[in-house]
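Human: Note token order:
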Amino acid sequence: MKHTKGQYKCKNCSATFFKWCGQCTQCHEWGSVSEDCVAKGNVVTNGRVSSIEKFSGKLLNVDLGIDIPISELSYVLGGKLVKGATILLGGDPGIGKSTLLLQLVLKMAEGGNESLYISGEESVPQMQMRAKRIGVSELVKKAHVIAESSVENIIASADSIPNLSLLILDSVQTLSSSEVLSAAGTSSQVRCSAQKMIDYAKKTGVGVFFVGHVTKDGQIAGPKILEHMVDTVLYFEGEKNSHLRILRSIKNRFGPVNEIGVFEMQQSGLTEVKNPSKVFLTESDSLSSGTSIFVGIEGSRPLLVEIQVLIASSNLPIPKRTCIGWDTNRLSMLIAVLSVRCGVNLNSYDIYLSVAGGLKITEPAADMAVAAALVSAYLCIPLPQQYVWFGEISLSGDVKKVVNVEKRLNEAKKMGFSTVVSNCPLHDALQICYMKHIGEIVKTVKDLSL
């Protein structure tokens, strides 16, 4: 290294500046500009010819995947862990990121795969205590752990283990490289350290998992480019007061996105939930008013979810609209449609909506179930327990068709429901209550009280 080059860079949009400023002039983000000191070495002027391969070459006949012993994680990743894949796992503190990856390392080692867990936050004795808590076997000889944060030392340690298959880096914000002079956790250190480990994964075929801290906004801390550099981005979600955890894929170069895996946090670690629909439904003989059952699709997996709505009189000039697990703006739109198209005036009520189980629903097919729950709560008429609802509602009040209808119907049938309220085609084993307009929901709920 000859000398260092100092500059300032925005961690939000990567814009560079010659001096520090409080607000980025490109993306207008406050407090995002920090010093980016990189050691400048010899400049290479002449490149070399890289090895050129054909798409139809020998790689098509090589096994590029490693079986994952945790079926829910395997489902989210697309079936196998591709050799040389780099995966970024983010989530709130204490949600179970390290526990999940520690269980993965131990189970991979039980299957005969050499695995290495790198901890930059805990000591080796602390990691061994956690492994004993989740039930590590004395026969597991191929699971290794070291406490290290230097990228150069990590690569050298990984090279010393023959036939290494899996490498866990906990966390990416603790990594540091000698080529960058700034402190660990800065944008330049995170970017440089991650790039070195990604290059190592591609050259050796070792699958690498990065654990990423998140900010108060729920985004992975560090430069946004980190999510573009890796092959897969996973988020671990769940309420802290709930035992359920949801693993969701946001980006996946080797499989479908928006797939979810459901886990349950127990004393001995995370256990897989084989039937998520059963977990998200309340076990009761009858539904109370304001409760409906929605058949949703998360990725390619159908799920039955319970929608709960509570309506209370309000003395505030602007009544409250509170949503947990759904979009507040979408709720406001449905309230307006019910008021204009059906005469159900909810403008003077506080409305609270919750998706049971801590699941976050983003698809518009939940409009029908939410509208039914709103009408049920407004009229104080419980909906039948054997009814499921799905369908998108437009501003005109029309019920629009949704995708993956057959999967939704089959899941409803499997879980024992008898009637589907939607605008879907007929089904042999289910009774279809066909609806084309939101006004028919109000009429159907009123008829239930007769």
